């Protein structure tokens, strides 16, 4: 089941304690179960990337494209290696590891 982009953006803004500037977001009610589900799925994606680096265009990355995009936007995963080279795999960052530790 895909999470709508609108729900994910609301979750990201809530997590970062930002005010939502986009009209239409603030009028919808928030349910804690919805937020919990998004956080759980993001944690699962980070765990999968940490356990086995996923190729940028793998079936898994395509299936979880919304969460991969969110994780990359938040700096939780990257395709840049520790020595500065661009790779073809998603890798977890130190920020992503910290998120995993807090949420597992």
Which labels suit this protein?
three-stranded antiparallel beta sheet, alpha+beta, 3 strands, globular, about 10% strand, about 100 residues, Arc Repressor Mutant, subunit A
Topology:
Layout lengths: L4 H11 L16 H20 L2 E2 L3 H5 L1 H9 L3 E4 L5 E7 L1 H10 L1
Antiparallel strand pairs: 1-3, 2-3
Task: Give an overview of the whole structure.
With 104 residues, this protein is α+β, with helices and mostly antiparallel strands. The protein has a single domain (5-103), classed as Arc Repressor Mutant, subunit A (Orthogonal Bundle), CATH 1.10.10. It has helices at 5-15, 32-51, 59-63, 65-73, 94-103; strands at residues 54-55, 77-80, 86-92. The protein has a three-stranded antiparallel sheet. Helix 2 (32-51) packs across helix 4 (65-73) and helix 2 packs across helix 5. The longest helix has 20 residues, at 32-51. The radius of gyration is 14 Å and the shape is globular.
């Amino acid at each position: 089941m895909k999470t709508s982009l609108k729900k994910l953006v609301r979750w990201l803004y809530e997590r970062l304690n930002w005010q939502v500037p986009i009209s239409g977001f603030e009028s919808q009610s928030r349910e804690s179960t919805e937020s919990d589900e998004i956080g759980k799925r993001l944690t699962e994606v980070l765990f999968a990337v940490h356990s086995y680096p996923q190729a940028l265009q793998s079936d898994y990355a395509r299936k979880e494209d919304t969460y991969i995009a969110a994780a990359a936007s938040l700096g939780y995963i990257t395709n840049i290696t520790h020595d500065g080279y661009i790779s073809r795999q998603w890798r977890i960052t130190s920020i992503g590891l910290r998120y995993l530790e807090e949420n597992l």
